[in-house]
Amino acid sequence: MPRSKTLNLLLTVGLVAAATVAGFAVTSRQAKAADPSSVPIRPVTFDAVYVVNGGNGETSSISVINARTNTVAGTIQLTDAMWPHHIYQSADRSKLLVAVPGMDMSEGHGGEMPPDMPGAVMLLNARTGATIRSVLTPAMNHNAIFSPDGREVWTSQMMEPGSVLVLDANTLQTRQEVGVGDMPAEVTFSPSGRLGFVANGGSDSVGPSGWSRPSRSVTTRSARGRRPTALPTWTTRPG
User: Fold this and answer.
1) pTM for this predicted structure
2) What's the start-to-end Cα distance of the chain, in Å?
3) Counting C-beta atoms within 10 Å of the first and last residue's C-beta, which end of the chain has fewer, N or C?
4) Which three-class secondary structure state does DSSP give residue 16?
5) Residue 122 belongs to a domain
6) What SS3 class is residue 188?
């Protein structure tokens, strides 16, 4: 084959390959940028238990279990929600929060965490599962929880150093970012509601953070064992 035709062939193949790679790159970025959403179900009219089922974005869902009959009464399908991990209900039982870290943690929380892995927070209607708001976060997050007064949402950012995002509970817009230890995982609150506790997996510490407005102070304490990820959950009776 003449040299000119060989060069033209190589150039054509190279352009096709470049276009294909670019196409995949764009698709990947679009998939990452897609806010997760949900498919509503018929309104829940009974006491329910919500169980989040992690999946690759096409199989993620929330099982709605009738607490009286112990049967699955409905399934809320989630779209563009990669490996949802935790679910919480608001104090008035009207809303649900789902954290979407984008990584499968079903076999543990160790190993290397991709530094550019984004997370997401979903705010859903508890009766229908309809999406009220959803937002992507700069880094993967372990859980998202309502503040004691219901006005804020706290979610960790698993980075080194890590942080906790304080979001508006209605709009999910970021109000504040609180610096904590390395690779923070679960966030929870004390029974009094005066302190928020963060399990810093990379720093082997647990950091209590005062959440009273307008300022928040952060201190850390050594944790027993390695890579703390989960914290106790306290329950209180209404009133």
Assistant:
1) 0.74
2) 86
3) C
4) helix
5) no
6) strand
